[in-house]
Description:
Layout: H1 10-24, H2 29-51, H3 59-77, E1 86-87, E2 100-101, E3 106-107, E4 112-113, E5 118-120, E6 131-132, E7 136-138, E8 143-145, E9 149-150, E10 154-156, E11 161-162, E12 171-172, H4 194-198
Parallel strand pairs: 1-3, 2-5, 3-6, 4-7, 5-8, 6-9, 7-10, 8-11, 10-12
Helix pairs in contact: 1-2, 2-3
Amino acid sequence: MTERPKGMSLKEFFSLVWWDWHINRGITFDRLRSMLLLLEIRWEQFIYRNCYRPRNPLTLIWYLTRFLGSIFQWVIATSIIPGDAEIGRGLRLPHPQNIIVTRLAKIGDFCTLYQNVSIALNGFNPTKAPRLGDRVMLGTGSIVIGDITIGSDVIVSAGAVVLRSVPDHARVISPRPTVITDYPSRDPAEPGSKRHIEDPYSLWR
C-alpha cells in the first residue's frame, strides 16, 4: 500500500504555480494549454499530499479530484499526468499534448517534456516508477520505462526508448535511421487526382 505522502503548504503550492507560469509564460495557444494543465496538476498534487491517507475517508477527496482531473487533462491536452507523481519546480511543456506520466514517477526541477512523451511503469515490475533528475529534457516521442533513474542535466533525443539508467550530464541519442537511396516511386499518382484522394500513399507507389 502507498505510504502517506508528505503534506504540502499553500506557500509551496503557490511557489510551484509561480514557477510553472514563469517558465511557460507566453501568449500562444500551447502556452495557455500548458498553464491550465499544470495548474490542474499542481492542484491534484496539493490534494494528494494533504488528503491521501490510507484507510481514511479523506482519501475519497483525492480519488474524486483525480477522476475529475483526468477528464480535464484529457479534454484539454489528451494527456495523463496524475497528482501522485512527484514533479519539481518549473516543468516546461512546450506542446502539452499526448504526455503520459505514470503515478509515483519522480521528475526533478526545471525539466522539459515535449509532446508524445511517455514515462511508464514496466508491466513486469509495476511497483517501481522512473525517476528523473533536474534539468532533464525528453524529446518528442521519447519513452522512459521501468525502475530506472535518469540523472541530472540529461537530454533524451526524439523517439528514443530508455530502458536502463542514465548518468548525469549524458545525451541519449536514438538509433540513426536507415536511408535507402536511389529508390524512386515507380507509379506515383498525380497530386490532387482522384487516385491520390482515394489513396494518399499513391504518391509514393
